[in-house]
Amino acid sequence: MSKRLLTLAGVLAVILTFGVAGYMLIEGWNFLDALYMTVITVATVGFAEVHPLDSAGRIFTIFLIVGGSGGVVYTLTTLVQFVMEGQLGSALWRRNMKNRINHLKNHLILCGYGRVGQEIARILADEKAEFVIVDKSREAITQAELDNHLYIMADAASDEALKEAGIERARGLIVALGNDADSTYVTLSARQLNPKIFIEARVSAPEAEGKLKRAGADRIISPYSIGARRMAMLALQPEVADFIDIVSFKGHELHLENLTVGSGSPLADKNVGEARQRSKAVVLAINRNSGQLVANPPDAEKIQAGDGLIAMGTRDELRAMEGICESCKLEE
User: Which of 284, 277, 202, 276 is nearest to 248 (CA)?
Assistant: First the structure.
């Protein structure tokens, strides 16, 4: 639509230039008189002539009225339609959206806005997480706009699209495309643009998991496998499944948080018992910087800088742990 506006502006510029040049060359008028005469002629306002016209000037004015007035009417009609249909507001909103995307930092990029992507976006929005959607489908982008999400309409495998989404500043990439080949290309491109970004990718066929791993995916998710495990758990241990739902999503009293202990954190070199006493939050597991996972750590277990803590508690308890941890959240 911006190209259409530029075209309309170009039409007006051509009409005005043609009129001004004609009056200056034919009648020998100065620029201001020629411009004034051109404007009142194409606007058909009926004002008197600036100076008397000779025969050549009158013939030129006839052509200017026929051609110029039609161009002005077309331009004004298009502008009115543009505003009435809400396209002007939409264009301004998209420009504001682009500025918001350019200022994002430590955000998430969601590639694909199909049924899976829409559910992911809903959860991210509920969690107040900042994210931007990248999808080349007009239908998907229309839905993203209706849902009031930040978006970029482009091929997610394109380096330009990922850069526009802020891949260098993002903390995570979620590949929710339905095609495994596309997911592999997106993962490979993202890993090259940001070697440190966390990438999780959806996979449909089991044989594609190895390719996604080699392309650089940190986590590979199969909706079918997860759905099957979820259904099996509900059948075998429904209370456990319900409890996981309660602590996994906000809106309940208990929450789960993934915290990272920074190098300057007061929790560094302290034991789990001290952290628990000071915040009342429960440390369910410690993910060592070396990759070792310590589940249900005892009170005497030491917390080290760089460790990832999986903690459970109320919102206030987790905030207290963040307060004594300083940089417990994902580091900048």
Answer: 284
